């Protein structure tokens, strides 16, 4: 039996399905942004790319934790 995915990564299948881009592309986009602060990046993803708050927050949290 496999463990269920927890934390920010648990949002990844829904993000890929809803926005039609792989998580790796979103993470590359976050890394290439001149912004560095968590909430700046979340706000940017929401405003410029139409992500919902939870999805943007999960992507940013997971990317910055790497």
Describe the protein.
The protein is an all-alpha fold and 66 residues long. The protein has four helices and no strands. It has helices spanning 12-19, 23-32, 38-49, 53-65. Helix 3 (38-49) packs across helix 4 (53-65). The longest helix has 13 residues, at 53-65. The chain is globular. The mean pLDDT is 93.
Quick summary:
By secondary structure, the protein is an all-alpha fold.
Low-confidence stretches: none
Total strands: the figure is 0
Helix count from the secondary structure assignment: 4
Quote the beta fraction.
Answer: under 5%
Q: What is the CA-CA span between the terminal residues?
A: 27 Å
The helix content, as a percent range, equals 55-70%
Rounded to the nearest angstrom, the radius of gyration is: 12 Å
